[in-house]
Write a structure and sequence with these properties.
The complex is a heterodimer of chains A (about 140) and B (about 140). With about 140 residues, chain A is mostly helical. Chain A has one domain. In chain A, about 65% of the residues lie in helices and about 0% in strands. Chain A contains eight helices and no strands. In chain B, helix 1 crosses helix 3, helix 3 packs antiparallel against helix 5 and helix 5 runs antiparallel to helix 6. Chain B is built from six helices and no strands. Classes of the chains: A mainly alpha (about 140), B mainly alpha (about 140). At the A-B interface, helix 7 and helix 8 of A face helix 3 and helix 5 of B.
């Protein structure tokens, strides 16, 4: 499920962007529905942001299940989902909360030090996403 | 060239973080960007991910050890006689991800204004040279 959400968020799929807000639209490609897509300047996170973020975070923090899927694949999928979730049109101002930001950074540190290069690449993607968010904030406050 | 010890890694780390995030006293630097604590933290994460992806500068002794085998000739066998042909895939995969990591770090550098961008590129070149020297030594 996380893989599907991550892939669709990465592709900026309008159905998924609307679904994250709890809206369902049969034809999101029309002009009116495109206008109703979440704004990158929103203040509140999307309706299902915390649920999806919690699932991703849990998958990254807990020990991997002893199933057929390798741990690195599960981590990679969860990190891909986090990359999609930290977009400003999904997360809103949620990541401006210092405690959440610190948690994400600490998790990224741990993964960058202990995991393989594929996971490090995802960590860099998260760092890039966060930097893009915060540099806009710094630029707007100047 | 042998891999760095954890203590020298920490010293290098400090130097790099000094260059990446704490050179806030630069006269022509963008003070607002340099002094932002969240951007500093993000830069630390990005630089750590880049540093740890290079076996020569990684703080993980295990990863540095295994990296030596990944760049050996592909036809060699290990101590119990198993063929190491699988390393061809590992090496190809490692090269692909290393390129992606450097590319992403360059993207990170490009987000920052000019004075910091050059500093971040310098860090990337430093790590690239470490990786390259490691490969030259191994061959």
């Amino acid at each position: 499920m996380l893989h599907a959400v991550a892939t669709l968020l990465k592709a900026s799929d309008p159905h998924m962007l609307l679904a994250m807000d709890g809206n369902s639209s049969s034809s999101p490609s029309s002009k009116t529905d495109t206008a109703s897509l979440p704004s990158p300047h929103r203040s509140e996170p999307a309706l299902f942001f915390w649920v999806t973020f919690g699932l991703s975070f849990e998958a990254l923090c807990s020990s991997p299940p002893s199933g057929s899927t390798p741990a690195s694949t599960v981590q990679s999928i969860a990190l891909e989902a986090v990359v999609g979730l930290i977009r400003p049109d999904i997360a809103g101002n949620a990541l401006k909360d210092t405690s959440l930001f610190e948690e994400v950074c600490n998790l990224c540190y741990r993964l960058a030090i202990t995991e393989g290069i594929e996971i490090k690449m995802r960590v860099l993607e998260i760092a890039l996403g966060l930097i893009q968010v915060f540099i806009k904030e710094v630029a707007s406050t100047r | 060239m042998s891999s760095l010890s954890p203590s020298s890694n920490e010293a290098l780390d400090e130097l790099i973080f000094w260059g990446a995030s704490s050179s806030a006293n630069g006269a022509n630097g963008d003070q607002a960007v340099r002094n932002d604590p969240k951007l500093t933290q993000c830069l630390r994460v990005a630089t750590t991910a880049l540093r740890e992806s290079i076996p020569a500068t990684s703080s993980s002794a295990k990863r540095a050890f295994y990296s030596r085998f990944a760049i050996r000739p592909l036809s060699c066998t290990n101590s119990i006689g198993q063929s190491r042909t699988a390393t061809a895939n590992n090496l190809q995969r490692h090269v692909m991800y290393t390129r992606a990591v450097f590319s992403l770090y360059a993207d990170v550098a490009d987000v920052f204004p000019s004075p910091m961008r050059e500093e971040l590129y310098a860090i990337a070149f430093h790590f690239f040279s470490r990786k390259f020297s490691r490969l030259l030594y191994a061959t």
